[in-house]
Amino acid sequence: MRPQLTQNVDLTAIDLNRIDRLRRKMLRHDASLCSERALFYTRSFQETEGQAMILRKAQAFSHTLRHMSISIEEDSLIFGNQASRNFAAPVFPEYSIDWIEKEIDTFALRQGDAFAVDPKVRNDILSIVGFWKGKTHQDEVNRNLTEEIKLATRQGALHLGGISMSGDGHLVPDFPTVLAHGFRSVLDSIDETNDFYRGVRIALSAALAFAKRYAGLCKELSDHENQARRKQELLEMSDRANRLFEGPASSFQDAVQAMYLIHVMQSIESNGHSFCFGRFDQTLYPYYKKDMESGTLSKEQALETLIHFFLMTNSLNKLRPNAHTVYSQGYPLYTNLMIGGIDENGNDATNDLSYLCLEAMNQTALNEPNFSMRYHRDTPDELLETAVKLIATGGGMPSMFNDEVAIKGLVDLGIPLPEARDYVAIGCVETGIPGKYGHRPTGMTYSNWGKMLELMLYNGRDPQSGIRLLKVQEQDSDEFIITNYDDLFKAWQNVLDFYTNLAVEADQICDASLEIYDADPFSSSMMLDCLALGKTVKEGGCRYDIISQSNIGPSVVGNSLMVLKKLVIEEKKFTLAQLKAAMEDNWTSRDSAMIRRQVLDVEKYGNDLDDVDQIVKDVFDSYLELLPKLETLRKGKGPRISAYTMSTSNITSYVPNGMEVGATPDGRSAKSPLNEGCSPTQGSDTCGPTAVLLSVAKLPNEKVAAGQLLNMRFSPSSMKSPESLAKFKALLKTSVRLGIYHNQFNVLDSKVLRDAMAHPENYGDLMVRVAGYCAQFVSLMPQAQEAILARSENGVSV
Amino acid sequence: MKGHVTNIQRYSLHDGPGIRTTVFLAGCGLRCLWCSNPESLRNEERIMVFTSRCTGCAACLLIDTDQALTLNGKSLIFDPQKELAKFIAVCPYKVFVRVNEEIEAEDVAKTCLRDRLFYEESRGGVTFSGGEPLLQPEFLKEVVKHLKKEGIHIAIETAGNVGFEAFEAIDPYVDLYLYDLKFIDPIQHLRYTGQDNENILTNLEKLIRLKKNIVLRMVLLDWVNDTDQEWEKRFDWLKHHPSAFQRIELLAYHNFGEGKYVALGEEYPMKDQKKTDNVKIQEIKEKLESMGFDVHVENAL
């Protein structure tokens, strides 16, 4: 048991032994593959040839839910399994199959995120490959990708994200409505006037049947259970399963169970990730309150339920191609669960469950759910204090969102204020409105700004691949001529504009294919306004269609432009050719190192220095200016707002994107990581966290409306005493006043991290914050581990 | 007006209340053998040589006319008595670093003011440390005047070995003194710091009589100043000043400064010195608490 954080709840009244057993099981996280879903989907698809895709997907979903193996986790109060074993990733052949066939024998050998594949599963999967060849979402995307986009990805300037070969996910169902009505009433009310409604009927009927299967299983297990308490629990679980989705959730525990099973089913319907729980404390509070008032629930029971729920969210898994794994390591599902914040009237909405969730996270301390908290000027001190204590334990949770900035950003996009006040993190840092956002707010195509900068310096030619898609200046050569800063910045804008347009084109190609292959009648039935419009979210059924790409490396670009401005243009310390020679040499020779030294002496973003901070801001603005002309495919087809916005949420992609880029003018060496989110480049922030926050505060944060990511590392010694925790809390409160969008923290000692790299076997439970989510440190690739180590450690006092 | 500043550390958590900026001024009259800021002892520019950064490129050797350096592969040896400043410009790897540069008082104040929101939220402010900040009284006063105009909370960390007029000159601007006490025993004080403590104790008692806000800070070193003999004297002295201090801070010795001695080409005088064990610290803490003091332990390790 970990030291308790919250008052007024008696942990000793909870069976902590079984929680510990369950936690250990989840911590081991022995990932493998499961072939059941793949086989069921294949069989079903074989029988539905010629029908509309949405109906085929609905029937395959139904077939799977009715026939897949189900099980009850031995110690758990929560039921629902995604695959035949914990941590077994189902296979989704309708999205992509080629890479699975190619990589199947290497899944177990990966450096990070390995999956065991037993011989039967291997045979099962290889047996269906033939059926799916050429028929998947990925095939459709590949057929439509232009030559130019393909070349841009070969340059490394663009990276087609998960959406080019898997589902989109990133949905927070309208849980308040779903819990208040269940599925039966939806089934009763829909007329099958189109394929969407027909698909919804099939999917929701299957969901009801799926729950009933657990009722049967729990009853059966109860019959054979000797221990009286467990026998009773299983009986109650059986009754609960029978009631589930038939009508309104009748208790707190029913509501929690319903949310979990919905999450499991969403994760079977589509292999998108970031199926999130939304504002968890707000959604569940009416049920909690009612049960507490009627005396049918105690605080301790509520906490026990939450802990079991938190633990079970770790039992799911997702298989990604190797190339994507480096972008998102640590088996992440990004199942965001959020607490705190203001209500639709602007009043603080903290309740008992906000505290209980903090305690549940404290007691479970695993990488899911991806736990985050909203806060604002009037967040109760006690809640903030409890959150700070949890942060100080080093697990990287919760990550903190500033209501004032996030809400302003959404309102500026046209979302009505009361709805904007209900915003939530969907996945990592990407923000949207629960139940109303039908697409990932960010992470469409990944744009490598570091590479774009490099391309500019070679007049559009990629020095690695030799590919050139545009000439930045008139001359045919790879020479790039710098005459003055204005022209230099214009050249950057041109390169950014060119590749952003390509990225949008890529987004649209993926989206068009997802509309067909990611048809999700189950999930869409829980999203506004799909049932009213008779459309899936991808067809335009969602209320808000606001998306963004993932932009990687703005700080590297800003710092580099600063160096060019100061040393090449203004002080003429050396020519661009000399600088490029040193970069090509990766700063190794003495002359190159001497140039690098001058480069490193130029002021860097993250130290509260106005000139360079302004340039980084200009770099942000150069992208924001492009947004109004960018359009999504759903514009005019249903959503009240269709638009592009910006985000710097970029998961671990700053590491592999960095590997594509040679040395940059800011002194960064070749292949090393770009900066993470809007954080300073690793190690360049030498003035401490207040200076970092003051630098970030100068950026147009509220316009980065899909999430602005800031990651900071603190030494454990700076978070030990009550006094230092109070100081950290003051730092957070100042962040709110400064208009910082988001902060997440690693509270880790460099020595501990080094030791964990050397002895991973001793550090299974060491969680770290990777851009936007938490991961087991030992599951990351060495390069990502190094990048975390390279973040400046704050608060080390000498 | 300019002064020699060793370092300006923002987000300083251990030098007074709230989030603070600590300004380390160069120059000190004491030579405490355990000093963790040896670069700040002299009120003048110093060159620190971080040999671990050396790649063996030998750029420095080209201008090394008086054999200040010896290079063996990547292993650089330097003679601290020789002129080293000229190597700063030619070394690509920043092996040679200048410290205690002269900075304008106004610029120091400006840097400190950048974090004022953090001070406000945390009830923090600016602390002047060193070195001995009171040894640059004119400069200090000028910086502090700028800050006081802006309503910033000011703390002075001092070892007190200055004329009392230095205190009087700065006092109107000071909210809090962090007063370091090394020894009560004057012989030991002389032995370990190079000076006796008569002046230090007199100044402290004057401040107490003037009812100034004082935090008493005492660093603890195993078998050096944590002996029963010494502490009997301290307890005795403290008995006469029962309500003199806002709080007492016990600082566990650490050897983080050792690398700086190497970079200065100096011998670390306290090699193998151990920190006082936690049991002993706890005992002292409890005894002080029983005397009515608010006691805090700062344990850097």
Please explain how this structure is put together.
The complex is a heterodimer of chains A (798) and B (301). With 798 residues, chain A is α/β, with parallel strands linked by helices. Chain B is globular, with a radius of gyration of 21 Å. Chain B contains nine helices and 13 strands. In chain B, α1 (105-113) runs parallel beside α3. In chain B, 29% of the residues lie in helices and 24% in strands. The mean pLDDT of chain B is 94.
What does the largest sheet of chain A look like? 7 strands, mixed
**Percent of residues of chain A in helical segments?**
40-55%
Tell me the structural class of chain A: alpha/beta
Number of helices of chain A: 32
As laid out across the biggest beta sheet of chain A, the strand order is 6-7-8-9-17-16-20
The strand count of chain B comes to 13
User: Which band does the percent of strand residues of chain B land in?
Assistant: 15-25%
Strand order of the largest sheet of chain B: 7-1-2-8-9-10-11-12-13
Tell the overall outline of chain B.
Answer: globular
Number of strands of chain A: 20
**Ends apart, CA distance between termini of chain B:** 38 Å
Strand content of chain A is 5-15%
Radius of gyration of chain B: 21 Å
| Helix content, binned percent of chain B | 25-40%
Biggest interface and which pair forms it? Answer: A-B, 30 and 31 residues
Rg from alpha-carbon coordinates of chain A = 26 Å
String of helices and strands of chain B: EEEEEEEHHEHEHEHHEHEHHE
Keywords:
heterodimer; A: 798 residues; alpha/beta; 7-stranded mixed sheet; 3-stranded mixed sheet; 20 strands; globular; B: 301 residues; two-stranded antiparallel sheet; 9 helices; 13 strands; 24% strand
Task: Please summarize what this structure is.
The complex is a heterodimer of chains A (798) and B (301). By secondary structure, chain A is α/β, with parallel strands linked by helices.
